[in-house]
């Protein structure tokens, strides 16, 4: 079912206070949250996270203090990225608490509208070297081992049943550390576990990391959570890859180098172009435009 054809109806459900993910699973008759459903749900909610932070900054301040404490204890690094950055409320408030500021900071989200709000929110933080773009958690437009420290902040939650491919993709782009700050099924009570399964949330994050054989140096509760039914855990994975990436931004389909050419991102090797809409680079695989004669 092509959900994009029913956006107006879905928007009405959201406006009336309905649970978008539950509604979309009902009309598609799927037990898991599809990529299209997640994209629509997130896009409709764009702006709500900034509003929530403004109404209750004390929680955001405490939450990002916990994250920045972890990052500060890793020592200096050049590149940092939040995968599934949303409206950058976590990234920006973490960044301002960092002792050693990275030279380049990245953030991507599947929702164009969220990135639009994120860019606006980030303006008041004046983060040098900040690059925000749309991207798919399962086809990240970055080269192997290209980002020193990659972290998530409740970005895998909605991808129940797809934990392995998601975590493997995040690990692929990380050079030194991958930090998963996600709801913890293991630390949740019975009610919380049942809720996670009902909503199609990821419940196998930690088990997946173990099965992949990654070097987990710490797994514990973060110490702050917005919902006691969804306790936030933190998994710190050390990688320490020696190979140099060579370049960072990559075509999400071929992983060949992307460069800014005449107002779009273009891969000379794949001959695919990716548009920039209202200053937001659109780097989802489905955004690719075949442009064999883009550069003459």
Key terms:
single chain; alpha/beta; Rossmann fold; N-terminal domain of TfIIb; 3 domains; seven-stranded mixed sheet; four-stranded antiparallel sheet; 10 helices; 33% helix
Concise structural overview:
The protein is of the alpha/beta class and 296 residues long.
Descriptive overview:
- The protein folds into 3 domains: 42 residues, no CATH class; 182 residues, 3-Layer(aba) Sandwich (Rossmann fold), CATH 3.40.50; 48 residues, N-terminal domain of TfIIb (Single Sheet).
- It is built from 10 helices and 13 strands.
- It is globular.
- The model has no long low-confidence stretch (mean pLDDT 91).
List the helices and strands and how they pair.
Layout: H1 7-15, H2 20-28, H3 35-44, H4 48-55, H5 57-72, E1 79-83, H6 89-95, E2 104-109, H7 112-122, E3 130-134, E4 147-153, H8 163-173, E5 174-183, H9 190-198, H10 205-211, E6 215-221, E7 232-238, E8 259-261, E9 264-267, E10 272-274, E11 276-277, E12 280-281, E13 289-290
Parallel strand pairs: 1-2, 1-4, 2-3, 4-5
Antiparallel strand pairs: 5-7, 6-7, 8-9, 9-10, 10-13, 11-12
Which structural class fits the helix and strand makeup? alpha/beta
The CATH topology of the largest domain: Rossmann fold
On the 0 to 100 scale, the average pLDDT is 91
Give the count of helical stretches: 10
Backbone CA Rg: 19 Å
Instruction: Please bin the fraction of helical residues.
Output: 25-40%
In terms of DSSP E residues, the strand content is 15-25%
Number of domains: 3
What is the straight-line distance between the termini? 40 Å
CATH class of the largest domain: Alpha Beta
**Strand runs, count:** 13
The general outline is globular
The H/E string reads HHHHHEHEHEEHEHHEEEEEEEE
What CATH architecture label of the largest domain applies?
3-Layer(aba) Sandwich
């Amino acid at each position: 079912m092509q959900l994009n054809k029913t956006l107006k109806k879905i928007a009405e459900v959201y406006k009336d206070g309905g649970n978008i993910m539950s509604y979309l699973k009902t009309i598609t008759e799927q037990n898991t949250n599809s990529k299209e459903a997640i994209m629509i749900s997130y896009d409709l909610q764009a702006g709500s996270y900034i509003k929530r932070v403004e109404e209750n900054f004390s929680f955001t301040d405490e939450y990002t203090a916990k994250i920045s404490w972890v990052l500060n204890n890793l020592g200096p690094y050049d590149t940092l990225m939040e995968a599934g950055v949303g409206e950058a409320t976590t990234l920006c408030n973490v960044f301002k608490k960092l002792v050693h500021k990275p030279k380049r900071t990245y953030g991507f989200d599947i929702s164009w509208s969220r990135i639009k709000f994120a860019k606006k929110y980030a303006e008041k933080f004046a983060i040098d070297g900040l690059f925000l773009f749309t991207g798919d958690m399962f086809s990240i437009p970055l080269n192997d081992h290209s980002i020193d420290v990659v972290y998530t902040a409740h970005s895998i939650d909605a991808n129940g049943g797809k934990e392995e491919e998601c975590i493997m993709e995040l690990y692929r782009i990380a050079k030194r550390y991958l930090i998963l700050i996600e709801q913890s099924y293991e630390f949740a009570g019975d009610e919380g576990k049942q809720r996670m399964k009902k909503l199609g949330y990821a419940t196998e994050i930690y088990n997946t990391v173990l099965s992949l054989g990654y070097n987990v140096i710490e797994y514990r509760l973060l110490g702050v959570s917005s919902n006691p039914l969804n306790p936030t855990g933190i998994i710190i994975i050390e990688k320490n890859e020696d190979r140099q990436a060579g370049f960072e931004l990559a075509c999400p389909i071929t992983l060949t180098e992307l460069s800014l050419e005449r107002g779009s991102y273009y891969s000379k090797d794949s001959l695919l172009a990716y548009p920039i809409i209202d200053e937001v680079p659109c780097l989802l695989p489905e955004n690719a435009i075949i442009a064999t004669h883009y550069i003459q």
